[in-house]
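Re: that backbone. Tokens:
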């Protein structure tokens, strides 16, 4: 091994191919003779289909098939529990009955020769319903909270109820307290690339070119749905144009594309419209949370209560880590957290970048800010006084924790000392300005993964893993890992990702790819090196012939006897000599003992400065800085890009993103990018990400903690706290709106 690729700000190895349009995304895998499918969605929020008259539509130009619950194939829908499926409930059985469970649920599918023909026919299809009134608002008296079943299992990271000490008693006795409830909007993922699947059957074998963050799961799910063997399904997804979690699950459109292709007996392409991406492909659940904090007069926390409820569908219990962070972020002897679900007449939510943590930490960090004012203590100083020595929720040490270092670094870069602590005290001409801060945390997940490495006679090394790359730069960072492990230049590493017949990887989400897949590639490189060495040792023509395995070593991609200064042998020489490539496959998973002994999380401190127009109520983020302790940084350029991208998501969460449902039928009324607002360049201004030097010997062999999620976590509370500092208005509803800061 030589260390020159890891840690370097390498440009993306796939950057040129991406900007020149050379890479292909799911919808671009056009197949010869393909037809087009368009989904018809329910226009009522709950009820029953009473009639679908497809006679006229079937005769429209180019129409090949009109498929509904009456003529769709009966699907097996065998149980398949992937790492992403909610473990309680059953996924939507698409086109299997006349029931409408939520607005936009697919009720029919039109297949035609061209997209235009399919769209025209889909628009002409008349569906009649017996409709009821759906329950879609958490405040609806008909909405009843339930205990999330999967969160009652011992050992689950997400716990429905967790407590230590007597939080309620401590609150009652506290010298200083805050007690506040916040309401965070439903959000929809809006990646540039829409969901898309091209499906083609060849006899009993199905190929899906499909946008997926988890191709091996899509393979297993579709095999289970169609009742065929998993090896008969191949899922291909080499590139993703952003996803943020929405492509972690296999949504109904994938099944529909496969149904259509079978019915039409030709390949079929199905691309969701932007509007349809608000119906059946998940969302960040709306949450309502209460955080109560009690403290001594000098700012030591004595009691902490965090109660949160998130929405889910009627047919599945989607859970996320809404209240988890509150049990370990700060030192406090009395803590009680409670997590509940509210089943509504809606599609099942899905993880959206920093799922649970982003929402839960908002509630906690706004309450901490509020407490700092109640105490008259600087918000950073308040966190310092409550910095824990260990994870008090799990009663074990952190593998590493750099939160205070993040605050120190961030405060210095941000210029926190220039802040006048009094609300409404800072101005820039007529604009109010404010500075806010918040902590961030996200678990360092390391799931089992495997990888294959092939050394070729031309010097190229092929690396294969089923993992996806939704944009963080997985091709590049994994190339760096392989290059360093083998001591080769990055140009010689050829990485291939996103095929279900490659060695399996965990979901490309949860900030676990660098740790999980990186460690697997590392292990496969070590295995390939050992194979190559053994071959050379047994080869009479080799300079190391006859040496013991521990008598040789690899250096800069060359094998030599220890202490020998000869040029040594290259992989390609060994491969050429043997006349066949060397191939090694290996797996990696977290050491169970390490997981038992340590609490492993990344931490961060996020600083935001806002300006608020006192007359118009408009809010703008002027600049923000995130400082992160996330273990080893494999590629500073990509890490910065990841983090500033996550911060943009936080701006959206704080100030813009909200899916509004019509209470009459549950229809998302702003299901398009004109009314569903996401930050654009003018909303973003200056963002900086900094990394503290953090060496974690426990977390995984690469020492990495992952960066995708944590970058979104503290941003919204930092902005809300800055808005309070600027205006004196404590807004507990996201996104923060003009009327929230203008109202008296
Ligand atoms: Mo992300 S929600 O882990 O895709």
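Recovered sequence:
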């Amino acid at each position: 091994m030589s260390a020159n690729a890891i840690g370097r700000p390498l440009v993306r190895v796939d950057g040129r191919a991406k900007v020149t349009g050379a890479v292909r995304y799911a919808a671009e895998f056009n197949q010869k003779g393909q037809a087009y499918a368009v989904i018809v969605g329910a226009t009522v929020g709950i009820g029953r289909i009473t009639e679908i008259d497809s006679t006229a539509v079937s005769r429209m130009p180019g129409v090949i098939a009109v498929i509904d619950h009456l003529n769709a194939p009966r699907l097996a829908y065998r149980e398949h529990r992937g790492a992403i499926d909610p473990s309680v409930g059953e996924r939507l059985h698409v086109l299997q009955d006349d029931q409408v469970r939520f607005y936009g649920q697919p009720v029919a599918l039109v297949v035609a020769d061209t997209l235009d023909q399919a769209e025209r026919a889909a628009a002409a299809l008349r569906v009649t319903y017996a409709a009821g009134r759906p329950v879609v608002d958490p405040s609806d008296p008909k909405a009843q909270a339930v205990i999330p079943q999967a969160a009652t299992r011992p050992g689950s990271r997400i716990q429905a109820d967790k407590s230590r000490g007597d939080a309620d008693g401590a609150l009652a006795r506290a010298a200083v307290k805050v007690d506040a409830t916040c309401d965070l909007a439903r959000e929809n993922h809006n990646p540039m690339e829409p969901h898309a699947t091209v499906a083609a059957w060849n006899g009993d074998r199905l190929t899906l070119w499909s946008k997926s963050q988890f191709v091996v799961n899509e393979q297993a799910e579709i095999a289970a749905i169609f009742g065929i063997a998993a090896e008969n399904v191949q899922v291909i997804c080499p590139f993703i144009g952003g996803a943020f979690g929405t492509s972690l699950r296999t949504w109904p459109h994938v099944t529909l594309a496969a149904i259509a292709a079978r019915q039409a007996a030709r390949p079929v392409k199905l691309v969701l419209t932007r509007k349809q991406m608000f119906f059946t492909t998940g969302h960040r659940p709306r949450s309502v949370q209460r955080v109560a904090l009690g403290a001594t007069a000098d700012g030591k926390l004595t009691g902490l209560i965090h109660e949160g409820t998130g929405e889910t569908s009627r047919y599945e219990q989607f859970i996320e880590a809404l209240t988890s962070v509150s049990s370990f972020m700060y030192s406090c002897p009395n803590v009680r957290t409670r997590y509940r679900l509210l089943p509504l007449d809606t599609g099942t939510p899905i993880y959206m970048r920093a799922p649970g943590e982003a929402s839960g930490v908002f509630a906690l960090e706004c309450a901490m800010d509020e407490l700092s004012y109640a105490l008259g203590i600087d918000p950073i100083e308040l966190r310092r006084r409550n910095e824990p020595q260990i994870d008090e929720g799990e009663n074990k040490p952190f593998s590493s924790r750099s939160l205070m270092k993040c605050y120190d670094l961030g405060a210095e870069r941000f210029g926190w000392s220039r802040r006048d602590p009094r609300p409404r005290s800072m101005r820039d001409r007529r604009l109010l300005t404010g500075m806010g801060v918040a902590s961030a945390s996200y678990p360092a997940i390391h799931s089992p993964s495997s990888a294959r490495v092939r050394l070729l006679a031309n010097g190229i090394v092929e690396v294969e893993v089923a993992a996806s790359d939704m944009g963080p730069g997985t091709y590049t960072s994994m190339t760096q890992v392989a290059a360093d492990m083998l001591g080769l230049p990055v140009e010689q590493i050829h990485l291939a990702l996103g095929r279900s017949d490659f060695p399996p990887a965990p979901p490309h989400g949860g900030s676990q790819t660098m740790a999980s897949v990186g460690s697997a590639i590392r292990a496969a490189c070590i295995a390939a090196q050992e194979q190559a060495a053994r071959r050379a040792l047994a080869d009479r023509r080799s300079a190391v012939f006859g040496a013991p395995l521990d008598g040789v070593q690899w250096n800069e991609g060359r094998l030599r006897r220890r202490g020998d200064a000869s040029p040594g042998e290259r992989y390609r020489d060994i491969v050429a000599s043997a006349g066949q490539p060397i191939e090694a496959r290996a797996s990696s998973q977290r050491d169970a003992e390490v997981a038992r002994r340590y609490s492993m999380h990344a931490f961060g401190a996020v600083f935001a400065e806002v300006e608020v127009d006192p007359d118009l109520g408009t809010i703008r983020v002027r600049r923000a800085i995130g400082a992160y302790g996330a273990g080893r940084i494999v590629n500073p350029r990509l890490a910065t890009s990841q983090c500033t991208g996550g911060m943009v998501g936080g701006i959206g969460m704080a100030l813009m993103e909200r899916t509004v449902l019509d209470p009459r039928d549950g229809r998302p009324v702003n299901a398009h990018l004109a009314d569903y607002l996401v930050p654009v360049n003018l909303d973003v201004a200056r963002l900086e990400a900094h990394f503290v030097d953090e060496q974690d010997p426990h977390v995984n062999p690469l020492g990495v903690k992952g960066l995708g999620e944590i970058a979104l976590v503290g941003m919204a509370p930092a902005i809300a706290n800055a808005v309070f500092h600027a205006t004196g208005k404590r807004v507990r509803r996201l996104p923060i709106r003009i009327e929230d800061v203008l109202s008296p």
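The first strand starts at residue 35 and ends at 41. The first helix runs from residue 15 to 19.
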